[in-house]
């Protein structure tokens, strides 16, 4: 096409560039547009919109605004696509706070104001893009103001608008306001989706407000929205968080009765719940059930069981689980090692704990803030204060950074041994 004379019309080039964007080949699209411009082929507004989109997806918002300047310089009129793409680019880069304070002419909300200066009416997609980003940045009041502006301008909100606002209210802990939006949706004849209800059920459960979660579920049934595995998982997790494992078990078994197949997360929630209540046999039964159903237990599954067995002083069974975990291609991670180290230290197997710690380091697994505390606390309580001091010295020399609980464990050990000067020095 580049070497045809006369050159094909620019829309034909745009089709190719647009196709490349659809398969996320943004750099290729930018490169090809430069090639045809170097051949004297003039881009049109659609070409430049495609370029803006490419730069925004690549995170080069400044370049996107350079293209915007080129649009104005060439005498083209920016379209709603131009503005929406630029706004989305800003939102993806998390520049909403800058936008709110109008420190930059390229701010999202400033752009929204400028749309009308070009006699372009912003649509629901434009508003939704900004409202969603405001809510994700905990700027719910500003999102609500923008929502009110939509209503005044007779731009009908969509289910996406309400989902974003619900998420924002939930993130700020305003559950009642989030639930109240369901009535607003009903008044505007907007049908909530499964995702709408999942937002509300999830936050209700995480806050331990199971009564509110049930109200939302009832509303979901009334709205004719079918339950899915995510709803059940959220409810089960909520009950487990408030130690009502029996209720979670009831929800788990009711899934099959309602034609919903539990997934790996469903089993993980129940296994973790049982383990935290020291109902290890029930947790092991679920693991076996997963295998019978040809479901692959993941690292989370094994970590829950290993932690549960360690805390129930059934550490002898743990090593077989660790081998099984390895055989199934599920690598042990820092959570696995912390559970094992904690169990070994609490059962006075300190030499094995230190050996395991070294093995973990050799495997390239980086210790976290809990690892150091477990080892130091175990050594101090096991009467091996000198080893604990040497361990801390070794970590400091190696450049490891310890946190307050690790220092607390060491200071506590020194105080109990009557070594107050050393404790004060460490403080």
From TrEMBL:
Domain of life where this protein originates: Eukaryota
Alphabetical list of InterPro entries matching this protein: PPR_rpt (IPR002885), TPR-like_helical_dom_sf (IPR011990)
Swiss-Prot/TrEMBL PPR repeat ranges: 44-78, 123-157, 158-192, 193-227, 228-262, 263-297, 298-332, 333-367, 368-402, 403-427
Entry keyword set: Repeat
TM segment ranges: none
Pfam families (alphabetical): PPR_1 (PF12854), PPR_2 (PF13041)
NCBIfam families membership: PPR
Protein family: Belongs to the PPR family. P subfamily.
Protein name stated in the entry: Pentatricopeptide repeat-containing protein
Organism: Flemingia macrophylla
